[in-house]
Amino acid sequence: MEQIKNRFVIIDGSSLMYRAFFALPLLTTESGKYTNAIFGFAKMAVKILEELKPEYAAVAFDKSRHTFRSEIYKEYKGTREKTPDELSSQIPMLHEFTKALGIKLIEIDNYEADDIIGTLANKAAREGFETMVITGDRDILQLIQPNLQIVMTKKGITETEIMDETAFKEKYAGLSPKRLIDMKALMGDKSDNIPGVFGIGEKTALKLLTQYQTLDGIYEHINEITAKKLKEKLVTDKDNAYLSYKLATIVCDMPLDFIPTEYSITPDSHALKKICEEYALKSVWTSLNKISGIGEDTAVVMDEDADKYLVANKNMQQKVISQIQTNGYIAYLPVCTGKVPHITCHGLMIASSENNQAVNIFISEADLTSIAGILADKNITKITYDLKSSLHSGLTIAGKTIDTMLAAYMLDPSANEYNLENLSDKYLEREIASYDQKEAIPFGKTAYLLKSVPLKELADILLPLLQEKNLTNLYDNTELPLEKVLANMENIGVYINSEKLQNMSDEIGSTIETLLTDIYKLADIEFNVNSPKQLGEVLFDHLKLPVQKKTKTGYSTNADVLDALRPYHPIIEKILEYRMWSKLKSTYLDGMYNLIDADTQRIHTTFNQTVTATGRLSSSEPNLQNIPVRTDAGKKIRSLFEPAAGYDIFLSADYSQIELRILAHMSDDKNFVEAFKLDQDIHARTASEIFDVPLSDVTADLRRHAKAINFGLVYGKSDYGLAQELNIPRKEAATYIKNYFTKYEGVKKCLDKIVTDAHEDGYTTTLFGRRRYLPGIKSKNFNIRNQNERMAMNTPIQGTAADIIKMAMIATWQEIKKQNLKSRILLQVHDELVIEAVNEEIDILKSILINTMQNIVKLSVPLTIDINTGKNWAEAK
DNA sequence: TACCGGCGG
DNA sequence: TCCTCCCGCCGGTAT
What we know:
49% of the residues lie in helices and 13% in strands. With 877 residues, it is an alpha/beta fold. Among the domains are: 4-178 and 189-203 and 254-261, 5'-nuclease (Rossmann fold, 3-Layer(aba) Sandwich), CATH 3.40.50; 298-468, Ribonuclease H-like superfamily/Ribonuclease H (Nucleotidyltransferase, domain 5), CATH 3.30.420; 500-595, Taq DNA Polymerase, Chain T, domain 4; 662-798, Orthogonal Bundle (DNA polymerase, domain 1). The strands form six sheets. A seven-stranded mixed sheet has the order 7-8-11-10-9-12-13, with helices on both faces. The chain has a six-stranded mixed sheet with strand order 3-2-1-4-5-6, sandwiched between helices. Strands 21-22-18-23 form a four-stranded antiparallel sheet. The longest helix is centred in the last third of the chain and has 37 residues, at 782-818. The structure holds a DNA duplex (9 and 15 nucleotides). In addition to polymerase activity, this DNA polymerase exhibits 5'-3' exonuclease activity.
């Protein structure tokens, strides 16, 4: 077995065992033995050997805690039906497996695994061994020191995060690892029966420690603490704090020496094979086969069912490849981990057949080269699911592609999810089992490790359905090619000036602090301003301000309500300000800072192509489609987005009034069309029409009202809503709307027709045929029916705009590529494209954008764009 | 996990 | 599917 010299790994057997037990459903062997704990533990142990390649290793268990801890059981009982016996029956298997792996197992009377780990790790690290502790227990983090890293298991068990001193400090506001003990002394820990100081939580503890470094420090300076209640709490619970400190400290000096030779790893292949067979740990055996020195180097048949998969050996790969060549298509699902732009592909699941039976073959990472030629072969059709993720995985994909996820989205864009299990259920009327097999692939992306990948069958059903619904054109020529563009944009990311970002966050932080003290003073009480519930109580019970509106759960405290309360109390102003700053800080500054990629220093959002019901894209992690712009404070945040080194300028191209222009085209309304043809100010013209004044006499206020109607119109706004927005009587709003539809008769007719059609068809469509089903449109419930009718009116407009910009994006991207430009598209914000550009290319970019965006479709009114440039995104507006 | 509130188009 | 405006994402609190 290949090894890294001097690396010593200690596995927290107790922690992993509990984690595995809770994270996995109860698995049993044929003989009825429970195996979930051993299964998870074994997978983890194998992963450690495979990835960390230690020279020495040990597994520590609690000897005294072999009976299931009742408090943990209580904690989980509500959600999991597992009993203590089911876990304790697996402990001997864990021991057996550890021995077969040739790893020394340590349990010592009267000591917990923590103490064994603390003692051994400390000694090894000090003697210069590169020591790593694998655990799911955060307490262990206190051991971190030079030469000692903690590998924390995250969600589930096989995902891990390596914590060293730097990582720790980053996560815990600069505290050193030892201070974790002080933290716990203050916070306590219910699950470990550590009391802490009553009423102190993580935030307060962190604040105190940042100021006074240690628990001792806090009590030495106890008189400097000005917050009365806090001081009182600390004084009252001083004994508890020090008791907790003791309880939280891991023993590092038990009588146990670190003698390296005792911890050499000496696996026993025979014993391992026997255990894997006996406890049905087929996947563990498969992974063991990948570690040289253990297992056998042959193909492993995972299952004897029709739905089975094979980890392909060389022979099988040849067979599969020739089968693919005969078929002319490959149906595959990549198995990837990591985040853009650091995706690793661990292999491909290939849907194949053997003796006319469905077979899934797993080509592992090491063998990917054998399939690379197929993927790059223009003559072989690729049938896959979520093509964008394939494109991120570094595979070169050529030829005709079929994306079953995208096809399913287009057939019904309102569905909640398009995972393969659902699609198979819906279109093939067949359930895909997923669990045991998805665990069977070593460390893959669990979501798509399914018992079968019926991509070809799905494609055979979905594509004719697209045809039947006239969606083929949009799918082939817009949605599918768009995936490549989006993958490229995501991969490039956008640079954000993190230094400025941090400064801004700090500044706003102190602004917020000041506002808080003001608010507390004005309210004469301290409370959590972030809690609408508490805020409501303060405003309406304590300060007795007039209640404006209620929500389902209590008083409403939203911006409208607060705005109306302004004259009643000076606190309102402060709260509104507080809301604004804390929104900007938490969502945009701190939230985005956490998503800056360490390597690229850029933010790599995800553009979701199968989320919205209307056909728009959405953006997440982070959402870069809702970066502030409307206020000055917001613009400052937008100004943090800058061109990176090698680029000079941001260029933004946005469609002017695209939705209203689409409405003009669809309705063919005489007035509307004329306005756009003459390139008039549409809102001013509307004001002139509905208020019956000459264009030259339209005041700013009249224009504002007209604008509200124009926009509200495409949402199906009611007189009630319009009255609310413009703060005018409902009757007046009703008159506006009536006048509007008298003047714009074509619009009225068009919207009415859309609604009638939707009633008849059960769906509505965009100009390019995109469909949205509206199952509620025939509802007897007035509200639901009305809501569906509003959707029917809005979707063709919003969706058509989405279709158009998608087509324009593809054309722009292709032209940029064709001309070999350095500049590149970074973002799409519904009607805007943001480009990172070099100065020399600005002119050519402008002409490309005008050509593509304005001319990509021919409507009865012109589509125009505004182009702006600037040193950052805020300036390019 | 549900709800509120707030940011964008 | 749930009161009067469509489409989203996200952070915070309370449960």
